[in-house]
Amino acid sequence: MALLHLPLPSTFKFHSPLANGARRPSWNYRPSSIRIPSYFMISVGFECKKRIKGQYESENATVRRSANYHPSIWKDEFIQSLSSQFKGVTYGKRLNHLIGEVKAMLKKAPSEDSLEQLELIDTLQRLGISYYFESEIKHVLKTLYNKRDLDDNKKDLYVTSLEFRLFRQHGFEISQEVFSDFKDEIEISDNISFLGNINRILSLYEASFSSFENEDFLEKAKCFAINYLEKYMRRTRVDEVDMAMIKHALELPLHWRTSRMEARWFIDIYERKKDMNPILLEMAKLDFNILQSIYLEDLKSASSWWTSSRLGENLSFSRDRLMANFLWTIGTGFEPEFSYCRRMITKINSFITILDDIYDVYGTLDELELFTKAIERWDVNAIDEIPYYMKVYFLALHDSINEMAFQVFKDQEVDVIQYLHNMWIGLCKSYLQEAKWYHSNYKPTLEEYMDNAWVSISGPVILVHSYVFATSHIAKEELESLDKTNDIIRWSSTILRLADDLATSSDELKRGDVPKSIQCYMNDTGVSENDARNYIKHLINETWKKLNESEAENIALSQVIIQMSKNLARMAQCMYLNGDGYGIEQETKDHVNFMKVIDA
C-alpha cells in the first residue's frame, strides 16, 4: 500500500531553498564553549519511575469518566513497513532540471504580459511548488506593483482581483479602492451573464477573503460572488472543470486551504485544463511524491518514538492519535526543511492530546489542581502529591521538553526553556478553568469562554514550539513577543478553536465536557443551534480579517511564525470541514488516503 512516501532531506541533492529563517538542525556542537544551565543537567525520563515504583494509588476506587475512545488503526509495524520509490539522485536531477525551466518562465520580463505572469504565479502556488521560487516571484510582483501607477489602461475584474489577492498575500500594500471601477456593476447587477467568463467571479470571490476589518466593499463583493456562483451552478450547461472549481471554492476559499491538500486536489484539476503546461504538471507531481517520501521518514521516526515511549500503553484512557498528530504538522509546515520541526511537533501534539484527556475526562478536580501546580513548579522532586498516572505523564513531558530545549541551546546557544515552560503553564491553567466550570455546572458567556478557549485549544503551545524548532536564528525579542499576547497567534488559535467547536461540540457534550462556543452563544441569546452555528461561522470569517490585518501590521515578525500561524488556522478549517478530522480515526484515514502518491 502506497501511503505517505518520502526520504530525509539529506537524501536529495536537488535544490531545496530554506524558507526565511528556517532551521536545519546542526549536530556540530561545541560543548566546551557553551555554558549549560543547571536544569538541563537533570536527566529524568522513565528512570525516575524507580523513585515512584510501587506508588500505584488506589485509583480504581475513584469514579472516573470515560470517553470510550476507539484504538488507533495505525500500528507501528504497518507504518515501518511502508516504503517509497521516490528517493535518490535520479528524481532529484529531474526536479532540478524542471526548476530551471520554470525559473526561465518567471524571468520573462513582466512588462511583456503581466496577466501571464500573474497566472503563472497563481498556478505555481496552487500546485504547491511556489516555495522553490520565492525570490523570483517577489521580483515579478515588485516589478508589477511599482508600475501600477504608470498603467493608464483600465483592467478588467479578473486581472484586478488576481492582482489584489497576490499583492496582499505577498505583503504589498493595496487598497480595496482598486475595485472602485466595478462597484456599480457588482452592487446593482442581478444578470447571470453580464460579467461573462466565470473566472472573473471566481477571482473576485477568492480576492475577497484577503480583506481586513471594515473593508465593507470586499464583504459586499464576497456576498455577490457567492450568490452569483450558486446561481451559475444551477445552469443546465456548465463546463465540468468550471463546476469542480466553483464547488471547491464555495466549500472553502483558497486563502483558507492548506498548501499540500490544495496541491493534491489541484494537480488533478490542472491536468484536465486545456491550457495545462506539461512542465508545471510534471514538476508538481514529482515534488508532491518526493515530499511524501520525506513525510514517510518523519512519520516513521515519530511512530518509533511513540511506541518506545509506551505512553499509549501506560495512559490507555487517552486517545492514541499519532497519525492525526503527524498530519497536522504537514499542514502547518510542509516544506522539506521543516522535517525536524514536524518530528518534534508530532511529539508536542501527542503530549497535548493526553493532557487534554486528563483534564477533560480522566482527572478529578483535586488531582487537576495539584497537577497544574506541579507543571508550574516544573520540579521532578515535587510531584509526590499527584497520582501515579500523572507522574508518568509529568516525567515524560518534563524530560522531553527539557531535552528539546537542550538541543536548541547546544545548537544556537539560546535558552528557550522558560518560554516553552510558560506555554505549558498557560495551557494547563486554561484546561483547569474549563474543568472548574464543568464541576460547578457554570455556564460561561461566549466572551468568557473565548478569552480562555483560544489558549485551551493549544494553538500558542504549538506555534511557539514550532517557531523554536523551525528557526535557524532564534531572536530573543521575538520569543518575548510570542511569550506575551501576540495577535497573530491569538487570531490563529481563535480560528482553530471555533472550527474545532463547529465539528466536535456535540460529541464532547455527550461525554460531559464544558459548553463550547455554540452552546455559550445559545445560552447568551436564546437562539437555535442552527443560528448559533451560523454565528460561529461569521466569527471565523471576521477573525480571518483580523489575522490578515495582523500579518500586514507585523511585517518585521519572522515569516516562520506568520506562515505557520496562518497554516494552523488553515489546517483547522480543512481537518474539521466535514466533521472531527482529529478525534475520529475514519476522518483521519480519509485525509491520509487523499494524500497518497500520484501516478506520474
UniProtKB/TrEMBL annotation:
Look up keyword Metal-binding and say if it applies.
Answer: yes
Keyword Mitochondrion, does the record have it? no
Name a GO molecular-function annotation: terpene synthase activity
Q: Name one GO biological process term.
A: diterpenoid biosynthetic process
What keywords were assigned to this record?
Lyase, Magnesium, Metal-binding
| InterPro entries, alphabetized | Isoprenoid_synthase_dom_sf, Terpene_cyclase-like_1_C, Terpene_cyclase_plant_C1, Terpene_synth_N, Terpene_synth_N_sf, Terpene_synthase-like, Terpene_synthase_metal-bd, Terpenoid_cyclase/PrenylTrfase
Superkingdom of the source?
Eukaryota
One Pfam family this sequence matches: Terpene_synth
Where's the Terpene synthase metal-binding domain?
310-546
Enumerate the spans annotated as Terpene synthase N-terminal domain. 73-250
Required cofactor(s): Mg(2+)
PANTHER family per UniProt: OS04G0344100 PROTEIN-RELATED (PTHR31225), TERPENE SYNTHASE 10 (PTHR31225:SF9)
According to UniProt, the name of this protein is: Terpene synthase 10-like
Q: Which organism is it from?
A: Cucumis melo (Muskmelon)
